[in-house]
Amino acid sequence: MLYESLFYDKAVNHIFSPEQTVQYLLTFEANLALAQAQEGFIPKEYAQIIAECCTVKAIDMPALVAQVGLGGNVTIPLVKQLTVLVKQKSPEAAKFVHYGATSQDVIDTAQMLQAQASIALMQERLTVIIAQLYELAYAHRHTVMIGRSFMQQARPITFGLKVVTWLDGLVRAKERLAQLSFYVQLGGAVGTLASMPDKGQAIAQSLASLLGLSYHLVVWHTQRDLLAQIATTVGLLSGSLGKIAKDISLLMQTEIAEVFEPSAQGKGGSSTMPHKRNPVSCIAILANAQRVPALVSTLLQAQLQDHERATGAWHTEWETLAQILQLCAGSLAQTQVMTQNLEVNTSQMLRNIEATQGLIFAENVSLALAEQLGKAEAHERVEQWCKLAQAEGVHLKTVVARQQLLTPEQLEQLFNPVNALGFAVTMVESYCNKSQTAS
Q1: Are 212 and 165 in contact (CB under 8 A)?
Q2: Same domain as 391, residue 249
Q3: What is the greatest pairwise CA distance in the chain?
Q4: 255 phi, psi to nearest 5 deg
Q5: Which alpha helices (H) appear in 302-423, and where do they start and end?
Q6: Residues 170 and 206 in one domain
Q7: Residue 395: which CATH number?
Q8: Is residue 191 part of a domain?
Q9: What pLDDT is recorded for position 263?
Q10: Do 273 and 403 reside in the same domain of the chain?
């Protein structure tokens, strides 16, 4: 893939490669036979033969791909090839290939296995990212910077607090991922397991156990919330990663220059402008975060499925879920690189605090004067002084000092950004210490 190193994670892409996808389908077929043998439904020697033939290396992939369009899904031509392979070893065993299952059972279960494997890899990256952000937040718990509201300078915060807000979203995302369940699908034509009398439910439970999936009593052929839940959970994670990328890309602007992605040879350059340092990781994460919601929406819409087996709605899920998982995995890969050695320009943060020449401390002055003048009058006067400072091009402290309502000591306190942080430092320390205690 041309853009694999930008938008994706190679390990997760491999899970959804054609060969690996077919192998997951075959894993279902192998374990279905083994589960049936385990429950005494078919002879064990037949199950073993079927399982031995369930390797993608034995499948004619070009022929399989060519026949998918004729069958309407990949399972139908795959089962035909598998049956031929088994028949070459044992005609009797071949009678039990795919016995009692339907195409959707195979594809749904394979998707669950792929989702489970993908999310396990994603959780590993997410754990690393969270650890990196904890370290970054604590290291910068006292690093003063300007907080911004509606893209405008508002009041001072600390960079550590900004990082904690990123971190908090990812911690919740990790908890949601850990709560996901991945279910086996086995119901046969209309979900009744009628082709496996007396043994159907026991076989389904054994199959779930063999595959490391959860068992659900009622077949979910046309109740797709189980799959949609995976998509929405991953979609929320994608959005949280996008939030981080949005902030960092804005902080990398020339006029702000407070935070930068880690530098690397050949990274972030322009094809025409040698001076540029583009937010490459942010670009990839933001692109993915904008694509994922529409894909999640597709799966939410696909919940409107007809009767016991759906016409079209089920089919929309196959590539869509894969794309959601692949894109989010790619965002995690970029975020891990980005947060590992994030460059923080603390001196520029302090310089930017003075960009408004003290206007960001207007609320401090207003509150200090409220005791003397009352809140409404204090607010009105400070508002006038702000306009005067802007008109004259001088620092707000200079204008306030002329009024002689506050002492020089009070002015120093009011215009010191450290005294305008509220509980910022405490929040960061409490959040990070809480994590250490929990771990």
Answers
A1: no
A2: no
A3: 102
A4: -75, -15
A5: 317-340, 346-353, 362-373, 375-392, 396-403, 408-414
A6: no
A7: 1.10.40.30
A8: no
A9: 78
A10: no
110, with CB counted inside 10 A (0-12, 13-18, 19+), is: buried
Say if CB 203 and CB 47 are below 8 A apart: no
Q: Give domain status of residue 189, yes or no.
A: no
Contact 102, 187 (CB under 8 A): yes
Two structure tokens written together for 232 = 């929405």
Between CA 391 and CA 224 the distance in angstroms is: 62
Same domain? For 242 and 137 the reply is: yes
**Mean pLDDT for each 10-residue chunk of the chain (439 residues)?**
92 97 98 98 98 98 94 95 98 97 97 98 97 97 96 95 97 97 97 95 98 96 96 98 98 96 64 63 97 97 94 94 98 96 96 94 93 93 96 96 93 93 95 74
Active-site residue among 148, 176, 277, 309? 309
Q: Which of 5, 17, 195, 270 is catalytic?
A: 270
Pick the closest to residue 67 from 22, 112, 101, 1 (CA basis).
22
pLDDT of residue 437: 63
Query: 309 catalytic, yes or no?
Result: yes
Nearest to 231 by CA among 282, 281, 303: 303
pLDDT at residue 265, as a whole number: 56
270 annotated active-site: yes
Which amino acid, one-letter code, is at 150?
A: F
Query: CA-CA distance, 94 to 48, in Å (whole number)?
Result: 11
Residue 273 phi, psi dihedral angles, 5° rounding: -115, 105
* Angstrom distance (rounded) from CA 246 to CA 119: 24
CATH code, domain carrying 59: 1.10.275.10
- Read off the amino acid at residue 328: C
- Give the integer Cα–Cα distance in Å for 396 and 67: 75
Strand partners, 260: 343
> Distance of alpha carbon 180 from its chain centroid, rounded?
14
Say what the pLDDT of residue 71 is: 87
Residues 401, 261, single domain; the answer is no
Residues 230 and 340 in one domain: yes
429 and 374 share one domain: no
| Structural domain boundaries, residue 72 | 1-100+200-217
The amino acid sitting at 132 is Q
Together in a domain, 303 and 251:
yes
> For residue 436, what is the domain's CATH number?
1.20.200.10
DSSP state of 310: -
Q: What is the dihedral of CA 114, 118, 120, 121, to 10 degrees?
A: 150
Nearest to 81 by CA among 112, 57, 111, 104: 57
State the total domains in the chain: 3
Task: Yes or no: say if 337 and 126 are a contact pair by the CB < 8 Å rule.
Answer: no
